[in-house]
Amino acid sequence: MTKILKSREILLALAILALIALISTRFPGFVAPANLANVFNDTSPLIILAIGQMVVILTKCIDLSVAATLALCGMVAAMLNGMGVPLPVILLAAVVLGAGLGAVNGWLVWKVDIPPIVVTLGTMTIYRGIIFLMTDGKWINAHQMSAGFKDLPRAFVLGLPVMSWIAIAVIIAAALLLNRTALGRSFYAVGGNPHAAVYTGINVGRTQFVAFVFSGALAGLTGYLWVARYAVAYVDIAGGFELDVVAACVIGGIAIAGGAGTIAGAVLGALFLGVIKNALPVVGISPFWQLAISGSAIILAVAFNARQGRAKGRIILKSAEHRA
Amino acid sequence: MTVAPAPAPQPVLRLSGISKSFPGVRALSDVQLELFAGQVTALIGENGAGKSTIVKVLTGIYQPDAGVIEVDGKAVQFATADAAAKAGVTAIHQETVLFDELTVAENIFIGHAPRGRFGLIDWAEMEAQSRALLTRIGADLDPRLTLRELGIASKHLVAIARALSIDARVVIMDEPTAALSHKEIHELYELVERLKAEGKAILFISHKFDEVFRIADRYTVFRDGAFIGAGAMSDVTEGQLVQMMVGRSVDQIFPKRAHNIGAPVLTVSGYSHPTEFEDIGFTLHQGEILGFYGLVGAGRSEVMQSLFGITRPSKGACRIGDSVAVIRSTAEAIGQGIVYVPEDRGRQGAVKGLPIFQNVTLPSLGRISRGGFLRMAEEFALARDYTRRLDLRAASLDQDVGLLSGGNQQKVVIAKWLATKPRVIILDEPTKGIDIGSKAAVHEFMAELAGEGLAVIMVSSEIPEILGMSDRVIVMREGRIAAELTGSAMTPERLVRAAAGIAEAA
Fold it and tell me: Considering the entire predicted model, what is its pTM?
C-alpha cells in the first residue's frame, strides 16, 4: 500500500477518535468500553455491506441493490424459520440467495452490457417488489420467529455478540481475499485500468460478475442478521440503507472511479457513520443533523480525495521521479 | 492526371522556417509549405515525417518555436484555433470532429449560427443556409437529420459544408479517404474539384500515391520533420516521390547480433477476420525478429490482437510448436506462451494506482500462488528480478507505477510480460513516442531477447527500425500480406512500394 493511502486511513481514524473525544466531553459514558463495543456491534451490518460494496466499486461498478437484497434474503430467512427449517440451513440459504441475486446483477452487467447503476437501480425495486409479492405486504413479527433464530446474533461469545464476531470474520476474510489472492488483485486491476487488465489475461466482465456475487452474498448474510436482531421482517426494512453503504465507502477513501481503496478504509468509513449515528441521540442532537453531518462528511471526503489526486500531477522531470 | 495550371504568383498561405520541438523530439525542423488558390497541394511523408504536426501548426493548436506564417504575404500568428479559423484555415480530420447528437444544420453552424430577434438562433435561416451550402457541394442531405444517422462519407460532406460556412480559404484534408468506399472516394474527388473551382487552396494529406497523382497539382515532401522538396506533380514520377520519402541510407546504429534462427515456434495459416484482415499466414522461428510493416490502418495490430486472443479470427489455424493452438482469450494466449506489448501504453499497459511490483506480477499471479494464496516473498522476488534486468529506475517497487516517467513505465510493462516466461513476444510500435536514448535501449534489449531464443514479432511504422532490427519483414496492405521480404530485398523502396501498392519498378 502506498504512503498516501496509509495516511488517508490514519487521518480517518484520527477523525473518528476526535469525534469520540468530542462526544465524551458532553457524555462521558460514551467512551466506556462496553458502549464502544456496542457501537461496533450496531455498525456491523454497515461494515459487512460496505466491504461488499467496496469490492464492487473497486471494479468500476456500483451496487445500489444491496439493501433490497438484504431485505429479500431477510424475509426469506424469516419465512424459512416459520416453516421450521434448521438455523444452519437458513443461514446458508440466505447467503446463497444473496449470491444468486448478486449474480443476476453481475450477469446483466457482464453479458448484457448494461451500466451497473442502471442494473442495480432496476433490481433494487424488483427485489423489494418480490418481497411484496411473497408476503402481500404483511409483516413477520417477533412472536412468529423461533427463539434460536432471534438469539444467534445477540449471543455473547468471548465478551462480544456473535454479530460482531461475524463482522470481524468478514473483515479478515475480505482482507485476505483482496491482499493475498490473484482474484483480489484482479479486482484492483480491472478498476484501475480495464484495457490493461484485458491484455493481462484478466476477464473484466467475469471479475465484475464475481464482485457482484460477493456483494450479494454478504447482503444475504446481513439480511438474516438484520431480521433476527430487530426481530421483524417486512418489505421496507433497511430502506435507503444502500446510500449509507456507498457513503461509508466514499468516506473511507474508496475511489468511486474504481481501482483504489482498502478494507481498512471501508471499515473506518462505516465506523465513522456508526459513531455519528449512535452519538447524536445521546448528546441530544436531532436526527436531522445526523443526515447533514454524514452528508458533509461525504463531500469533505470526496473533496479531499480530489485534491490529493490533483496535487500529484504528471511526472515529466527526470529529477522528480525519484522523489515520488 | 489533371493539367496543372501555372502557379499563382502569390501563395494564399506560406509557412517558412517553421520549427517545433517537444521534450526529446524535434518534430519539425526549418520546414516550408506553400498553398495556392485553386490548387491542391499534396503533403507526402512517412509516419513520423511531421505531417500531423504541421497541420496542428496551421490550425493554431501548436505554436511553432520559430518560423513565419504568412497569409496573402502578411505575417500572422495563429495563437488559438479560433484565430486560424478566422483567417480562413480549416481542417477536415481523419476522424471528423463533429457532434453525433446534433443535426446536420447545427453541426454546420455551431459557434456561428445566424441570429434572429432577441439574439436567438434563427432556425429557419440556418436550415435554408445549410441547404444552400449542401447543394453547392452537391450533397443530397436533409439538414434536419441528426449526424448519428449518417455514414462516414456524409459526415465528411457535413465537415466540408462547415468549412464553406465559415468562408474558409484554406481547406486541409487529412487522409480524407482512409475510411471511404470506392464510390465515396470518387464523390470526394468531384468535391475537391468543385472546391478548386471556387478558388480554395487545398492541402491534401494522403499515403496513397494513386490518389495523389489523381487530384493533386503540387506536392511537398517531408522526411523526419524536415522539408525535402516541392514542385508540380507533372514534373515528378512515383519513383522520385518514393525516393524523396524514404531518403538515402539508414544512418541509425542498430545492435549487431548473431542470427541463430531455430525451430518454428508459431505457424499461422489462413487467418481471416470478417472486417479486419484476410488470409494471413507466416511462420515465426526461435531467435527470430519478424518485422511487420505497413501504413497506419493496414491491419497489423488487428492481426496481433487476434493472435493474442482479444478478437477471434473467423477462419484460419495457428500452431505453437508442434501442436494446434486454439486461442479464445488473452489468458489462453498467455498460457500458450504468447504475450503482446500493446502500442498504447497509457491505456493498455500499466495499471496506475497499483504499485510497480504488483504491475509486474499481474499476469503471473497463478504461478506464484499456493493453495489460492499469493506468496508475497516470491512475488516480490519475481518483480525485483525482472525490473533489475530491465534496469528500471525507481525509488522503490512499492511506488505507484503512475508516478514513473513514460520510458520507465514502458520498462515495467515489458518486465511484466517477460516475467510470464513467454515463447513469443509481440511488440507493437515499441519505440513510438520515446526519445532516441530509450529507443537504443529497447533495440538492444530486443536483440538480447532474440539472442536468448525468444521469438519476437515487431510491428513498426519506422522504416529504419524495421530494416535495422528485423531478420525478415512482412508488409501488410489493406488487411492482406502484400509482400514478404528477406535479405537483400529488404530495401526502403520495396517496403514503401509494397505498403502503398505501387508496382515494382521495371
Answer: 0.75
